[in-house]
Amino acid sequence: MKFYTLKNDQKLPAIGLGTWKSEPGKVGEAVIEAIKSGYRHIDCAAVYGNEAEVGEALKTAFAQGLVAREDLWITSKLWNNAHESDKVIPALQKTLKDLQLDYLDLYLIHWPVAFKADVGFASKADEFLTPEEAPIIETWKKMEEAYNKGFVKSIGVSNFSLKKLKSLLVDATLPPEVNQVELHPLLHQEELLEFCNNNSIILTGYSPLGSGDRSQEMKKDDEPNLLENEVISKIAKAHDCSPAQVLISWHLSRGTSVIPKSTNPKRIKENLDSYKIELTEKDLQQIKTLDKGYRYVDATFFEVPGGPYKNIYDE
Ligand code: A2P
């Protein structure tokens, strides 16, 4: 198992189990299976709507002695409707309660986008808070407070562009340890990776397998299928492994952590075993040619007419 050592000496297991889109009734079992298979990193978020079931599974895992709390890395994320200063710690406490934990290993600001407190998912201009009404630095100060109080061992961000990350670094007292963004062979984000490497920030990649189980309304008709990509399939054949394992192994070769989602026991195990695959220089060169800046999660849905967020990716 590969770990990345963060600036604060915490050790982040490179491969974690993703729980976005993991269905109620299935996610708990997936967490148990993952822990039994050797996963020591589970990626959660309040907005996934399944933290209470993950919490039950964790309780079972600890009670059965499958793993000790200190050997497990649990990440969660602050949802967009809790960015205001008085909402951050209560949101974290709700997540801790749901997960039945007394601390998180990592807490991330899920998006650099703020909603009004009573809005689950903003789709109209007046459901957002402007960056002036909920400045990211004020939210970050509360993340720092959560760290200083020992509620979380590390803090970071998610979906932050290079520009937003740089700006946060200027204002922050504690720099973020992690930025979790979409990453896969169709979206290398080289500039962001280089900046993170130079600033000792670990990038974690979500949608590493192309997130084919997103809801229909989140999908484009003509979206490419990463798991059936010709270059990836050829490399998989040469290594006698699955395309998913090539996709996951690619992250490890770039020094990024990765959180493939699965609720299927066989695939959960297969995904963790990807650390055994060593891609060659030639494989990596071929994968380089696939980069076309393609996003499966197109968050321009936050850029509503008349709303305060105009350029979510700063591209
Ligand atoms: P399942 O949960 O049934 O295994 P992402 O991590 O990019 O969001 O992708 C998750 C999707 O990929 C889910 O549909 C998941 O299905 C599927 N998946 C996970 N692992 C594998 C694998 N090893 N091979 C093929 N599909 C996989």
UniProtKB/TrEMBL annotation:
Domain NADP-dependent oxidoreductase, residue spans: 15-291
Organism encoding this protein: Joostella atrarenae
Protein name: Aldo/keto reductase
Sections of the chain in a coiled coil: none
